[in-house]
C-alpha cells in the first residue's frame, strides 16, 4: 500500500528513479529533435525549391504537425525543471542568449509560413520564405550548440564544440526532412529532395566524426570517454543507420529512411547522455544523484508522469493517424 510515509522514505517500488528521470529527460529531447527536426529539415529544403507549387507542397506537408511537435520541447524543459531544478536554473542562466536565440528562431519558423500565405505578392513571399528558411536552420543549429556546451560544461554560448555539434544536428534535421517529404509528397516534389537527403546524411557522418574529435580534446577524460562499450555501440549503430538511410531513400523506401533518421536522432541524443553520465551539469559538477529533487516530490512526479505521458503520446498517435498518407500537389497550407 502506498502511503505518505512510504512516498517520503523510499523511491517508488524501489525503482532507480534518478536514473530513470535522467533517461526520460534525454528521451524527451530526442523526441523533440526528431519530430520537430523533420520540420526544420523541410524548412531548409524549402530554400532549394524554385517552383511555387513545390514550396506550397512543403508547407502543406508540415502544416498539421509543426506546432504540435513543439510541445515536446516544452515537455523536455518541464521535466528538467521538475526533476533537476538546479540544473535547469544553471543551464538556462548560463546560456540565456542561446535560449533567446532558439525561441526567436522557433517564433520566426512558426510565423513565416502564416505570413507567407497572407499575400501572393512575389516580394512579400520572398521575404517570408527566406525568414522561414532562416528560422528552420537556426533553430537546430542553436539547439545543437546548446547540447554541445552542456556536455562539455562550457559557460560560453559560442564555442568550437557548440558550432560543430550545431552543424551536426542541422545536417541530421535536413536528412530527416528529406525522408519526411519523400513520405508525404514524393510525387509532388523534385528528385533533388532525394539527393539532398543523401548529401545531408553524408555530411552528418562527417560532422559526427569532427564532433567526436573536438569532444575528445574538450572532455576531461579525453579519448578514453569514447572507449566504453555503450559509446562504441552507439557510434557503430549510427554508421549502420546512416548507410541504411542512404540505401532506403535511394530505392524509394522512404518510410524506412525516416525510421533510420529517427534512429540516428535518438542515437545522437543517447550518445550525449552516455558521455555526460553520471554528471548532469558538468559546469557545476553536479551528478544525477546530487541534482535530483527529494524523494517525496520525485515519487509524486513519477506517478503523475506515468498517468499523463501516455495521454500525450495518444494525442500524437491520433494526430499522425488523422493526417497519415501522402498529400497531393494541389493541397495548400
UniProtKB/TrEMBL annotation:
The chain crosses the membrane at residues 20-49, 70-89, 95-112, 132-152, 158-181, 201-219, 225-248, 255-280, 300-323. It is a multi-pass membrane protein. Keywords: Cell membrane, Membrane, Transmembrane, Transmembrane helix. Its main location: membrane. One of its GO terms (cellular component) is cytochrome complex. GO terms for molecular function: electron transfer activity; oxidoreductase activity, acting on diphenols and related substances as donors, oxygen as acceptor. GO terms for biological process: aerobic electron transport chain. It is found in: Cell membrane. It comes from the Archaea. It comes from Halobellus clavatus. This is Cytochrome d ubiquinol oxidase subunit II.
Amino acid at each position: 500500500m502506498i502511503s505518505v510515509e512510504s512516498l517520503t522514505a523510499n523511491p517508488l517500488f524501489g525503482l532507480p528513479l534518478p536514473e530513470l528521470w535522467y533517461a526520460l529527460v534525454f528521451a524527451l529531447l530526442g523526441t523533440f529533435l526528431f519530430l520537430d527536426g523533420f520540420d526544420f529539415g523541410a524548412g531548409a529544403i524549402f530554400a532549394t525549391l524554385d517552383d511555387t507549387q513545390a514550396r506550397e507542397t512543403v508547407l502543406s506537408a508540415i502544416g498539421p504537425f509543426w506546432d504540435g511537435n513543439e510541445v515536446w520541447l516544452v515537455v523536455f524543459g518541464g521535466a528538467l525543471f521538475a526533476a533537476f531544478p538546479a540544473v535547469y536554473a544553471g543551464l538556462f542562466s548560463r546560456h540565456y542568449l542561446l535560449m533567446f536565440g532558439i525561441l526567436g528562431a522557433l517564433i520566426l519558423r512558426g510565423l513565416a509560413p502564416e505570413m507567407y500565405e497572407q499575400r501572393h505578392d512575389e516580394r512579400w513571399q520572398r521575404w517570408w520564405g527566406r525568414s522561414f528558411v532562416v528560422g528552420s536552420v537556426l533553430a537546430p543549429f542553436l539547439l545543437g550548440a546548446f547540447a554541445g556546451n552542456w556536455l562539455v560544461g562550457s559557460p560560453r554560448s559560442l564555442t568550437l564544440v557548440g558550432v560543430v555539434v550545431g552543424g551536426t544536428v542541422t545536417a541530421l534535421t535536413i536528412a530527416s526532412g528529406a525522408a519526411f517529404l519523400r513520405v508525404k509528397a514524393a510525387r509532388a516534389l523534385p528528385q533533388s529532395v532525394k539527393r539532398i537527403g543523401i548529401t545531408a546524411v553524408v555530411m552528418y557522418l562527417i560532422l559526427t566524426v569532427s564532433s567526436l574529435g573536438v569532444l575528445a580534446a574538450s572532455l576531461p577524460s579525453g579519448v578514453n570517454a569514447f572507449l566504453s562499450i555503450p559509446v562504441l555501440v552507439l557510434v557503430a549503430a549510427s554508421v549502420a543507420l546512416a548507410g541504411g538511410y542512404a540505401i532506403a531513400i535511394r530505392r524509394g523506401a522512404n518510410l524506412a529512411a525516416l525510421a533510420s533518421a529517427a534512429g540516428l536522432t535518438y542515437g545522437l541524443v543517447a550518445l550525449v547522455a552516455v558521455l555526460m553520465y553520471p554528471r548532469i551539469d558538468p559546469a557545476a559538477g553536479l551528478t544525477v544523484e546530487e541534482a535530483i529533487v527529494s524523494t517525496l516530490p520525485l515519487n509524486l512526479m513519477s506517478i503523475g508522469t506515468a498517468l499523463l505521458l501516455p495521454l500525450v503520446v495518444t494525442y500524437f498517435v491520433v494526430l499522425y493517424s488523422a493526417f497519415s498518407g501522402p498529400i497531393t500537389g494541389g493541397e495548400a497550407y
